[in-house]
């Protein structure tokens, strides 16, 4: 082992450049100081990476588990800054966005522990109508916080409004006043933010334009394409195209759906039954149902939605990897253990379901979510 530790730096760099998986690269840098000096961002492969599933907080508090799809193992990371007794977490661009019980907000990198302060929750319009653990339902970064022009867009808690801040510039959140319905998701796509609401309308949020607090409807999901009532919608970029994904089965419903049971006494449940995927052309409001994602997989949940190339054998092409983010179905229920049961892999081609993480991981504050590994 001593011989391995004394390898020339050039050889260590050569080894580092041959490592494909981010988790293996992190382990490489943990061997010793010499290996850590070679395991730098510049020496890492740019091959598409496999997302991790950040599990709900364990009973021992400050430890978080990250489930590896490639290894089938759980990597533990000490993250006292993400203790759900003090804060709520979301994920975007490999970073966590935390909202703490003192109403402060922070960007947190789960591996480097780097923290970047965000404007205080009290600067949000109508912030006093929600509690900290439900003040934000979604958060999306326009780019890595290391860039000079990173903007953070959030869906503001139970109010389901949009607000944004420009990192390093703004000391307060700016609310987008346009709200035609509740917002389901938001994405940064082709240089702009877009949101989708409960009626399937896609809205452009031009935060750099002359009217940054006004959102413009640029597309609407045709009712004839959607097979049932809209329950949950996501916005995802895949191969340069904007997709709108509809998730069904996530609203609370009776376990016995025959209609013979008194609604006040019946047992309730929820759980995904199917997905529909649509490609939207923002230039002409053109919609096409997508039956084949090609060599891509979508990752949906309590995180900002994203897609990856199925370049590793552990990622199934033409599939949707989903985690439980249906807060309206479990949040606030006294007998609910929280989100975490409605997770799996949906095959777009044949509509079948399989599992990814088979253990138990539940939380009403921060349920399991996908994190894209990053520096």
From TrEMBL:
Residues 7-47 form the F-box domain. Transmembrane segments: none annotated. This is F-box domain-containing protein. It comes from Escallonia rubra.
């Amino acid at each position: 082992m001593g011989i391995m530790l004394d390898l020339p730096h050039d050889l260590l760099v050569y080894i580092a450049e041959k490592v494909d998986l981010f988790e293996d690269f992190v382990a490489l840098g943990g061997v010793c100081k010499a290996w850590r000096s070679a395991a730098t961002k510049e020496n890492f492969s740019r091959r598409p990476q496999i997302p991790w599933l950040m599990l709900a907080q364990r009973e021992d508090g400050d430890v978080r588990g990250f489930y590896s799809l490639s290894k089938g193992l759980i990597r533990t990371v000490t993250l006292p800054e993400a203790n759900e007794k003090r804060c709520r977490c979301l994920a975007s661009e490999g970073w966590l966005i935390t909202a703490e019980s003192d109403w402060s907000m922070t960007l947190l990198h789960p591996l480097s522990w780097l923290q970047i302060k965000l404007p205080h929750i009290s600067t949000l319009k109508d912030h006093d109508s929600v509690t900290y653990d439900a003040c934000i339902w979604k958060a999306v970064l326009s780019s890595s916080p290391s860039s000079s022009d990173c903007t953070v867009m959030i869906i503001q808690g139970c109010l389901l409004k949009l607000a944004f801040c420009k990192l390093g510039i703004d000391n307060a959140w700016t609310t987008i006043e346009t709200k035609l319905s509740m917002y389901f998701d938001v994405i940064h796509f082709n240089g702009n933010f877009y949101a989708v609401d409960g009626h399937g309308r896609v809205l452009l949020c031009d935060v750099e334009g002359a009217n940054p607090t006004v959102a413009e409807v640029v597309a609407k999901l045709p009712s004839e394409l959607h097979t049932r009532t809209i329950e949950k919608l996501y916005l995802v970029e895949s191969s340069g195209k904007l997709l709108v994904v509809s998730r069904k089965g996530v609203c609370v419903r009776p376990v016995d759906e025959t209609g013979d049971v008194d609604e006040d006494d019946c047992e309730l449940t929820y759980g995904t039954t199917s997905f529909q995927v649509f490609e939207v052309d923002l230039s002409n409001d053109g919609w096409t149902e997508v039956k084949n994602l090609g060599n891509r997989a979508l990752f949906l949940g309590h995180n900002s939605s994203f897609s990856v190339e199925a370049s590793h054998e552990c990622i199934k092409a033409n599939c949707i990897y989903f985690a439980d983010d249906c807060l309206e179905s479990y949040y606030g229920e006294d007998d609910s253990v929280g989100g975490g049961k409605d997770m799996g892999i949906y095959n777009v081609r044949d509509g079948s379901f399989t599992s990814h993480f088979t253990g138990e991981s539940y939380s009403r504050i921060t349920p399991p979510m996908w994190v894209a590994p990053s520096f």
